[in-house]
Amino acid sequence: MRLSYAENRRVERRRSPLSFLARFFVCVVAIIILTLCFSSYLSQQSEFERLAVERRKLESERDRLYEKYESLKSLDEIAETREYIERIARDYLGMAMPNDILIITD
Question: Does the predicted TM-score (pTM) go above 0.85?
C-alpha cells in the first residue's frame, strides 16, 4: 500500500532526530568558523591601522632625512670652494693670509 504525502512526512519526522543533530552540529560548526573569521578580520584591521600609522611616521622621517641630505649636499658643494675654506680658517681657526694685517684687541 502506498502512503499518502502526509503519512510519508510523519514517517520522515520520526527518523529526523539524527538529522536534527547533524544539522545542529553543522550550524554550531558554521557559527564557530564565522566567529573565528570575524575575530581574525578585526585583528587584521587593528594591525592594518597600526601599520598605517607607522608608515606615515616613517614617511615623515624619510622626508626629513631627505631635506637634511639636500642641505648637506649643498654644503658639500660650497665646502669645496676656496672662499669657504678661507672663511672657516679665519673664523674658526684664527688663521690669516700672509699679507693680512691683524689687529688684536683684549
Answer: no
